[in-house]
Amino acid sequence: MRFLLLFSRQGKLRLQKWFTSMSDREKKKIIRDMTTMVLARQARSCNFLQWKDLKIIYKRYASLYFCLAVESQENELLALEIIHRYVELLDKYFGNVCELDIIFNFEKAYFILDEFLMGGEIQETSKQIVNRSIEASDIPRYLKLAFTINNC
Amino acid sequence: MPAVSKGDGMRGLAVFISDIRNCKSKEAEVKRINKELANIRSKFKGDKALDGYSKKKYVCKLLFIFLLGHDIDFGHMEAVNLLSSNKYTEKQIGYLFISVLVNSNSDLIRLINNAIKNDLTSRNPTFMNLALHCIANVGSREMAEAFASEIPRILVAGDTMDSVKQSAALCLLRLNRTSPDLVPMGEWTARVVHLLNDQHLGVVTAATSLITTLAQKNPDDFKTSVSLAVARLSRIVTSASIDLQDYTYYFVAAPWLSVKLLRLLQSYPPPEDAALRSRLTECLETILNKAQEPPKSKKVQHSNAKNAVLFEAIALIIHHDSEPTLLVRACNQLGQFLQHRETNLRYLALESMCTLASSEFSHEAVKTHMETVINALKTERDVSVRQRAVDLLYAMCDRSNAKQIVAEMLSYLETADYSIREEIVLKVAILAEKYAVDYTWYVDTILNLIRIAGDYVSEEVWYRVIQIVINRDDVQGYAAKTVFEALQAPACHENLVKVGGYILGEFGNLIAGDSRSSPLVQFNLLHSKFHLCSVPTRALLLSAYIKFINLFPEVKATIQDVLRSDSQLRNADVELQQRAVEYLRLSCIASTDILATVLEEMPPFPERESSILAKLKKKKGPGKLPDMDDSRRSVNGSTEHSENTDTTNKGSTHSFTDVLNLNSTPSSGASLLIDVFSESSAPPAAIDVSEENFPRFVCKNNGVIYENQLLQIGLKSEYRQNLGRMYVFYGNKTSTQFLSFSSSSPPQLNVHPKAADPMIEGGAQMQQILNIECVSDFRDAPVLNIQFRYGGTLQNIAVKLPVMLNKFFQPTEMMSQDFFQRWKQLGAPQQEVQKIFKAKHPMDTEVTKAKILGFGVALLDGVDPNPANFVGAGVIHTKTTQVGCLLRLEPNMQAQMYRLTLRTSRDSVSQRLCELLSDQF
Fold it and tell me: GO BP, one example (chain B) (predicted)?
């Protein structure tokens, strides 16, 4: 994996994770390219795009787009499920996660991602184990918002 | 304000975030941020020591501001402080900040590395994991240097917790990707392979990723992983899905691990051991069988995970390319997906079938799906799926179906998305050439391409058609007739005018017998387009006209009139004017014989790889195209023919450049078919090595070493003992891309392999890292050769790299007594070199001091009895030896002179150092 971006339908970046070192300039360009490319896609198109020598796998969950770039030999369908598993983990932690959760708890979104992925590879696919290690480091949860997420 | 902050919520942070969200304008946001930055700065600077919580909160705010896209230039120290906190949440924020805002500030790196080291040895698994994550996230060379040897130990130690093992494996993987030279192979590799047997599937998954990456570089060291991977895979695919508990994903057993194991197996050929091989075949068959079973869940996650494993298994089958039955089964499975209602599956099936098409076992099976694929081209709503369909048609094309596929692509081209037109044009051009049995079809196809998508027909394509027509005399008459007819259209593309002008200029005589295409008609037709064309095309047409004068004496007067007109002879464009003047003169003074010789028909072009193919390869990247090597042979027909062309070509290259350019400089944009004389045929002339800025680097390590109108090369270098690292920054000063960019350094330099990006965007900068090792003392600096294409021309630049002997100095402090003792020891006449020279620069003590320090030696105070003199000492480190060195510089202000004395244990070193340093004052 090369990078993971989360952005809203308005193109606002909500989370960026880079798995290889890149200059800020390159990052800005990629973010711009990804948002314009993905947001221009029509509904019910396929979830994959070719971009330079990378495969872009994207999926929309409610108001957020998850956009993952992988090397050309990687498995697209499984990349799609990496996104889904991340959404599940966020969901489990926040309880019906919504965009606002990620805005206000951006650091948690990064921590959860770090438990799940590392160096651009999947570290732990078991939801239970990931959750256990996140919970272990966290004071009991309270507060929850009534925004719902559509897990389709 | 939605108080959504959870867990150990930081209220201040939530308030700040919601303030930012409430900002109505960008200006308001910036204002709010500046206010916050001022606040944080004052808190950090304040007298009161901040508690951990506040520090965490402010660091987190800074992080938020950075992620919004603003620059952060403070707070690093506070973040580093958090690393040593005992509170997990504080440590965690500290690490997050460091991972996101890596700073190459070297003091900080040392502190960070210290904190990481502490956490790695803490034996607290959560702390260890944080530290490993930080290393993997940053992945810098400094970190690799500090930890690359430690992590393998953590990975294979018996008492390491599972979660730490996982982190260690992936951390090592990341370091191996960024700095492979720093990750030592060794005894641990064998133990890593055995992690494939681990009970914990999470550990196995992480280890498989690591092994796959390592095995690709050192396949022999990891051979034993094959049998272990097959065994593991077999256990997974035959397990009941509940066996694996939480590693079952929507009723699919460990899909991530399965895919990784299948990927690992793709690093190796099929197993030779028969039992192992049949066990693997069984696994693959089981996976193929499962695809036919009814789904266990209606959720898309279930089918995605299941099909992910299936596609990976197919990829392995294709990689092995040895089991015809499996290949055909795979092809049939993909055939089913071609008509699946899920767009994703159709896309992947098209993509996967592309590789199947290149296997001799399955090529025919793939071809049976041609109608479906053509249909996809017409009906798919998603352009990226259509693009895959084009790719697949291209891959499955052979002599039997070429005409149909080319026709379909041409008709698709009329409506195709603009983004993929150029690629389709290239593909059609290649297929038409490769599978042309009769070349009239080829000529028709290319002319059609120009008609339908002229704007997307690049130079390579129309150069190619001309090369082929010139090389094959059976098609020349047809080509002349066809372009003549095509040019009749009231509006035709400029590319057609170019092809038409060139071909009629060469072969117009073949159709001149027909009164409808008599010489005058041909000329008038071409000339009717003249005024609508760009300068390069007009230049080409002028060449066609002079060729007409040779072919058809009867139109000579008409053409001379045209050349003589003011609009030609006094044309504002120098190229056009020159051609008009020279052609006119040539036609007036040369005898018929001379004209016939100078303007002879073009000799056949040498055989070479189709430049179109090269272009497509470049567009798609290597490995994306099936092998099309044999396209070369089909161009010129038989081999004897090509031998012929070779001999005719010797010595004639010059004559036809001249015909085309007639004394104009070859670099003028109008030169035709310059392509033919590029790289392979015309080796770049020896170029001067630039060393203009070289002396500036003797006493410093950073700066601009080379600059011209196009390119700027900056350097940053650092040295430690006998090793050095140089960062070379190539800046493109133009607004156009540099293509085929390459730089080669002399073999004694170890060039970091990651830098070979062949393209630099206009205005962009590319970085390359050179690792340098000083093996023994030396004189000559290495030369860096750079080559790239700018516009149409190849640029060659050679730059002398400022790697000098003094770069490998380590300063040595010593007392006066020591100094004189050693000075005496180095008393042999050949060990001392002295030079007296005139000052070139103003004699300023501080500047001189800085230069001596920059030279690399320690400046010793109070050694020389005369305080105006400078004395220095240092040791030169080479791989084999160390050479101690003492120096003394005596300025004479009155005479504006210096006396420099050097003593070292080696005469060559004394000599060289003296040359280098004396030049600096």
Answer: intracellular protein transport
| B252: CB partners within 8 A, 6+ apart | B241, B302, B305, B306, B309
Domains contained in chain A, number = 1
User: Range of A125's domain?
Assistant: 3-150
Measure in Å the smallest separation between the Cα of B304 and chain A Cα atoms. Answer: 6
For chain B positions 140-169, those within 8 Å of chain A (CB to CB) are 140, 163, 166-167
CATH code of the domain covering residue A98? 3.30.450.60
Long-range contacts, B150-153 (Cβ 8 Å, 24+): B150/B120, B151/B175, B152/B183, B152/B184, B152/B186, B152/B188, B152/B192, B153/B188
| Residue B427 labeled ligand binder | no
A47 touches chain B (CB under 8 A): yes
CB < 8 Å from B in window 104-123 of A: 104-108, 110-111, 114, 118-123
Beta-carbon contacts of residue B162 (< 8 Å; ≥ 6 apart): B198, B200, B202, B203
Quickly tell me which residue has 């010793």 as its tokens: B860
Give chain A's length: 152
Chain A contact present for B619, CB below 8 A: no
Distance CA A110, CA A4 (A): 11
How distant, in Å, are the alpha carbons of A107, A136, A137, A139, B96 from that of B7? Answer: 11, 11, 9, 5, 17
Write down the pLDDT at residue B257: 94
Complex confidence, ipTM: 0.89
Residues in a beta bridge with B899: B836, B890
Burial of residue A135 (number of CB atoms within 10 Å: 0-12, 13-18, 19+): middle
The pLDDT tens digits of the residues spanning B211-237 come to 999 998 888 889 999 999 999 999 999
Token pair 């996140």 is at which residue? Answer: A134
Backbone angles phi, psi at B551, to 5 degrees: -70, -40
Radius of gyration of chain B (CA): 36
CA dist B460 and B471 (Å) reads 16
pLDDT of res. B619: 64
Q: Which helix (H) or strand (E) holds B140?
A: none
DSSP strand pairing (B689-690 vs B793-800): parallel
A101 vs chain B: nearest CA distance in angstroms? 6
User: Any CB–CB contact under 8 A between A31 and chain B?
Assistant: no
Model pLDDT for residues B346-391, shown as the tens digit of each residue: 999 999 999 888 888 888 889 999 999 999 988 888 888 999 999 9
Cα–Cα dist B642/B491, whole Å: 38
CATH T-level topology, domain B690-800: Immunoglobulin-like (2.60.40)
Superfamily holding B805-919: TATA-Binding Protein (3.30.310.10)
Cβ pair B132, B171 in contact under 8 A: yes
Query: What single string gives the DSSP state of each residue in B821-876?
Result: HHHHHT-SGGGEEEEEEE-SS---HHHHHHHHHHHTPEEPTT-SSSTTSEEEEEEE
User: For residues B106 and B44, what is the distance between their CA atoms, to the nearest angstrom?
Assistant: 21
Check if B550 contacts A (Cβ < 8 Å).
no
pLDDT at B334 over 70: yes
Residue with tokens 């990927």: B263
